[in-house]
Amino acid sequence: xxxxxxxxxxxxxxxxxxxxxxxxxxxxxxxxxxxxxxxxxxxxxxxxxxxxxxxxxxxxxxxxxxxxxxxxxxxxxxxxxxxxxxxxxxxxxxxxxxxxxxxxxxxxxxxxxxxxxxxxxxxxxxxxxxxxxxxxxxxxxxxxxxxxxxxxxxxxxxxxxxxxxxxxxxxxxxxxxxxxxxxxxxxxxxxxxxxxxxxxxxxxxxxxxxxxxxxxxxxxxxxxxxxxxxxxxx
Amino acid sequence: xxxxxxxxxxxxxxxxxxxxxxxxxxxxxxxxxxxxxxxxxxxxxxxxxxxxxxxxxxxxxxxxxxxxxxxxxxxxxxxxxxxxxxxxxxxxxxxxxxxxxxxxxxxxxxxxxxxxxxxxxxxxxxxxxxxxxxxxxxxxxxxxxxxxxxxxxxxxxxxxxxxxxxxxxxxxxxxxxxxxxxxxxxxxxxxxxxxxxxxxxxxxxxxxxxxxxxxxxxxxxxxxxxxxxxxxxxxxxxxxxxxxxxxxxxxxxxxxxxxxxxxxxxxxxxxxxxxxxxxxxxxxxxxxxxxxxxxxxxxxxxxxxxxxxxxxxxxxxxxxxxxxxxxxxx
Lengths: 234, 330
What we know:
Chain A has 234 residues and is an alpha/beta fold. Chain A is built from 10 helices and 10 strands.
């Protein structure tokens, strides 16, 4: 039994189905990266796992619990956290308050997690009294990830964490992703910068037309000439 | 000096009283808008409802022979607030929540709230009649006169209800501030007003935030309605008449922005009292004013006071549609 098991998932937003049989399994030590062309259902897969769209077929289990079509306020306590691609911070609230909102479901003392997040993202500590809306794109992404880590997830879902960031910030975010993973959090992320992301991925999934086209380790996918040709731009 | 005190009595004290009532109402409107994204048209009638509940409680208190040092209408306020908050929750459960569960557009909720307005007005008239009543039928309304130590100068007049309104509003604003910035549910409310989908993603229990919103909006409505009835008079269309300035205050402050709503409330309150004030009184001290100098320099006649809020609303929407403070309006 894996931490996350996605088996033959079908689903969509009520219209034509977008997912036509997605399979993936992630362990706690894994960094899974989903790549593929536009409209392949990459972000939709993350949203399906996080209960943000209707799953019409297949199963999603987290730690053995069936979680398909569960709402986020049930999923977060089970150890799942999601960082949306856009609008992923509370702009009118301070950095500190954003992090507190990530710990909203927790009844225990979360000051240790707060220290852990500030350690993971040192620039945030100085800006903790500043409104998140006033930060740069890269720092906002840190706030977004920090917020998601505050619930002490077992698995973190990241939707294009490097979108809109400069190459320097992109590498910084990727480094953080690896560090978060080393601290014991499984990662499943969608990434446009497929080559760079697959370099450190323990599992890679190439989606096309709403189903798996290729599955393997990041290295295997990078070395597969067919994948490279069709999906990684030669 | 007399003129200045006249100005103080007519503009500053009246404006602060009116502004307090507007601010309390506008905070409720703006909180509901921030969380539920619809203009709660029935808010005025929720205020009237709260005032009538206070009046009922005063009757019970007086029939029990309970004497209070402050106006009884003020003493019963906590109970009236609790009852009105409960009714607000009931109204949400009965009318708005089923619509939200169906995922209707916000304009449908707005129209539903107009229906709630008509229903509340009907119920109030059904049970209380159309008569105008006073909270001070069986007790006296104290008026404080502050004599200045200057000979022949008129006194600063402020009534007991006016002092209570202003002081209570200041305390309420402070409590609300600490609630929104310190408490967990208060921060959850701000998070939901800021970014509802991210609040959901964070696992914030949105249903409990909605409940908290109605409890606060309902109790503030009861407070504002009762205070207004204490200051003026209790009648079935008490607060329906001031829905416009209350919404203007909320919009001027930036919908969804609580501090903006408070500022907007006082702004509209002072603007109204200043507009109906006869400014030529300020010139009475000058002996040799020419004959053509107008006797009445008020901007609008008292009976058209409501147009002031309307004009401010239109100007703000034209010049700065997001409100003085940036709001969550969408």
